[in-house]
User: Fold this.
Amino acid sequence: MTPSVPDLNPPTRLLCGSGPTNPDPRVLRAMAAPVLGQFDPAFTAIMTEVMDLGRQVFRSRNPRTFPISGTGRAGMEAAIASLVEPGDRVLVANCGRFGDLFVDLAKRYGAQVNQVTAEWGQIIDPAQIEDALRRTPAKIVALVHGETSTGMLQPMMEEIGRICRQHDALLVVDAVVTLGGIPVNVDAWGVDLGSAGTQKCVGCPSGMAPLTYNARAEQAIVSRKTPIISNYFDLAQLQRYWSPERLNHHTLPTSMTYGLREALRLIVEEGLEARWARHQRVGEALKRGLEAMGIQLFGDSAHRLPMITAMMIPEGVPDEAGRARLLEEFGIEVATAFGPLRGRIWRIGTMGYNAELSTVLRVLTALESVLRSFGARVASGAGVEEARRIYGRAAS
Amino acid sequence: MTPSVPDLNPPTRLLCGSGPTNPDPRVLRAMAAPVLGQFDPAFTAIMTEVMDLGRQVFRSRNPRTFPISGTGRAGMEAAIASLVEPGDRVLVANCGRFGDLFVDLAKRYGAQVNQVTAEWGQIIDPAQIEDALRRTPAKIVALVHGETSTGMLQPMMEEIGRICRQHDALLVVDAVVTLGGIPVNVDAWGVDLGSAGTQKCVGCPSGMAPLTYNARAEQAIVSRKTPIISNYFDLAQLQRYWSPERLNHHTLPTSMTYGLREALRLIVEEGLEARWARHQRVGEALKRGLEAMGIQLFGDSAHRLPMITAMMIPEGVPDEAGRARLLEEFGIEVATAFGPLRGRIWRIGTMGYNAELSTVLRVLTALESVLRSFGARVASGAGVEEARRIYGRAAS
Assistant:
């Protein structure tokens, strides 16, 4: 009998979208390891390692550091579902799509939401947060550290942490795109709860959401007056599962846990500083290379994320057909954009395993070819030359 | 530099607990395939295949057939979160721990919950459901098809479906342990929403939850008067992601999706009837083998699940130390029990890839040795003989 669905055979792509990125092959290999039961001592030891590694990567001593068994969005929802009680005031610092998601989540869980906003492509001034809290205190300030939708990096995190503490607000930070790529200093910044994803700079396939929270956040979770609505995202229960108590909750995704362990292990083995430098350099090479080709970058030039580069689509180049040609002919994925930026920018990710010169050179050469094929004028060879220069390679 | 966390090296276990089971090696291999972006045409084609395969395995024509990006519990929560509005009446048919979970979930989402119950180890009489609905109509009847906690199979599903339709209630069925192991006839039974897991008879690692629902359930979801609270479990959004519309939601767990596709593909390739027969036979061999050894089985003998065998722990054998010896010395995991059954029964899973004679023989011989080591009297060799006989093997 011939099965109607053929053997799985996905093409090999260079994933330079907004995530997932190509995982380190060692991560995929780890995911193929023999499955263990969730209460097997050999598996609970692995859980403990994942917690330890998570603390190193989040730069935190928080005992409550463990992943949610869902994607990055699940981590954000676990935070909001567990911290927000109906009627609580939540201040969202919103300058992009993931700020919008915080607004949506907080409203769904019954919060009274205030927002401080900046145009997409700009960042939030800490003074906006301070002013807003002075006018209307909030229990929670939710903020996106790296706004994938615009390519912007929120600076002055320590200052924002200080403001939140002064106004007795919990600081909840989405570090989905930044963790493992640039400094995420949970303890030093006074982040009360940080959440991330696996499929960006952490370098694992999508499917888990590393989370960390401190005693202030834990206190807010366990001293709620109203019950947590979600069971799956109930941090009060999950923290007892991820502890020597081993409270039975869901069946942890074994293979994803293996992958996350390996990805975090590789980050620690590489060294955080080295990894940040690698992401910084690749982002610089790509941005300077694009500019050398004559392509404009999007957004506030002082606060660009190294791992997501937002480029203006040259005039006359169609968004969908352009990306399709990159994908079909060069095997390279770049990301479209959301809302007001759709059709105006492409977002190019250089994350985790892909944060290296060869990625930049493949992207620049392919872009040059594809943009020209649609009639755009781009300087020939200039991008590659500039990127190689930034990597200290000889011109000839 | 020596990393402080060593290379991943989990031991090889025979997983005969309540799940996860050992996945088919082809599933783990599929999970190591190159990662694709979620809007890559090569990936959306895979999503479509997963939906088609899901319909075949759920025996349903429901267009809305797709997995939730979380474990089996996430599927149950997505169902309840999306169907239940505050104040809605939910009737839970409860005779075990997963019935309790339905009660918990429905209450969390604001339902007025009624229950019809049976003692753990028994099943629900459809007349109980009919009586309860006659007294107090309900919007939803939630029922566990296979109660993993007790090893019981709920019979008369068609009758229950008929009763629910007569009383205009939506029938929501947890088929986490049964899907892929025994008939789950969603359309023929009139199940309005069925949810499952990947790590039991489907034979994939834990981490996704196949779901299917019909037009009645969809109508209830899209015509709600109050918004769905959870974003991650918002089926009204997720069904637009899992459709040609491709509404952007979370980043689908690529590798888990590959694993689920392969697991479903292997089920269809084997043939549902052949797979059910395989599970039936292995369950029979294990149960008869245990009885031949002099071990008592737990619960209603007329309604035992083939894939989960609940055995009474022989007197004098300690629950934890007994299971630990099985695990450490024989590499075999069996499951403890919950609540009133803890310390009284062990649950032995023979699911998916493990549903074959060699599993039974390894379990029976190991059990014989371990139970004896704790001083229990069990008949020597009798279990193996009986199991081999059921598989038609010659006695000598």
Summary: Chain A has a mean pLDDT of 97. Chain A touches chain B through 81 residues (CB under 8 Å). The longest strand of chain A covers residues 89-94. The CA atoms of residues 81 and 331 of chain A lie 39 Å apart.
